[in-house]
Amino acid sequence: ALGTITTLSSYHWILAWIGLEINTLAIIPLMTKTPHPRAIEAATKYFLTQAAASALILFTSTINAWLTGEWAINTQISPAPSILLSIALCMKLGIAPFHFWLPEVLQGLTLQTGLVMSTWQKIAPMALLIQLSNSVNLNLMLILGLLSTVVGGWGGINQTQIRKVLAFSSIAHLGWMVAILKISPELTLMNFLLYILMTLTLFMTFMSLCTKNIYELSTAWSKSPTLSALSLLSLL
């Protein structure tokens, strides 16, 4: 929580970067709480991806400060650093084509940790991306957004594991948010809040049903029809 709050309340790129680093390091023990090779692999992939994105953010914000003389987040950013910052934040969010880590990482986690990964961990980078909405490149955002919606839609079709379906669903949802970011940051924020609410509902339903794959979900109707109906409504 400290990392996200630090990033949300910061006006300086260094403070925002520190918040993102705290955010990343805080979830690693939760990911490795279950001593399973898949969990260790997921934590390693997540750490390496987030470390690369954080390094790019620090490097790019330094270049921007050198060009403009400003470390403030809400000031106008030069075109080249703006593109690199957008790419780094999209990598942290798991937006295509920087999405390859997300399905595999989410599959290696418990549903409880997956819930944190899919909701809380995305708040800080999305907040920074919304603050950059005036400086981001429209064509880049449209390309990344449309690519994410296609990848998220097609990628989730043949999946049998609930967590991978939710990962590709996250990629598709975030793709729509990124596509409209430059046009309407307010609509992006509203979309993100709805995404958090729907994802929270789905994960908590699947945790209550102890469901990990599509087959278990299809047979859960006889055990708990109310929760099964709620999960179907949330998926809609």
From TrEMBL:
Domain named NADH:quinone oxidoreductase/Mrp antiporter transmembrane: residues: 10-233
Keyword Transport recorded: yes
Keywords for this protein: Electron transport, Membrane, Mitochondrion, Mitochondrion inner membrane, NAD, Respiratory chain, Translocase, Transmembrane, Transmembrane helix, Transport, Ubiquinone
Subcellular location(s) per record: Mitochondrion inner membrane
EC number(s) per entry: 7.1.1.2
TM ranges: 12-31, 43-63, 83-102, 138-158, 165-183, 189-209
Keyword Kinase belongs to the record: no
Domain of life: Eukaryota
Pfam families in the record: Proton_antipo_M
Biological-process GO terms, alphabetical: mitochondrial electron transport, NADH to ubiquinone
Membrane topology: Multi-pass membrane protein
Molecular-function annotations in GO: NADH dehydrogenase (ubiquinone) activity
Cellular component, GO annotation: mitochondrial inner membrane
Catalytic activity entry: a ubiquinone + NADH + 5 H(+)(in) = a ubiquinol + NAD(+) + 4 H(+)(out)
UniProt family annotation: Belongs to the complex I subunit 2 family.
The protein's role, per its UniProt record: Core subunit of the mitochondrial membrane respiratory chain NADH dehydrogenase (Complex I) which catalyzes electron transfer from NADH through the respiratory chain, using ubiquinone as an electron acceptor. Essential for the catalytic activity and assembly of complex I.
Protein name from the UniProt record: NADH-ubiquinone oxidoreductase chain 2
Organism: Dryophytes japonicus (Japanese tree frog)
Lineage: Eukaryota, Metazoa, Chordata, Craniata, Vertebrata
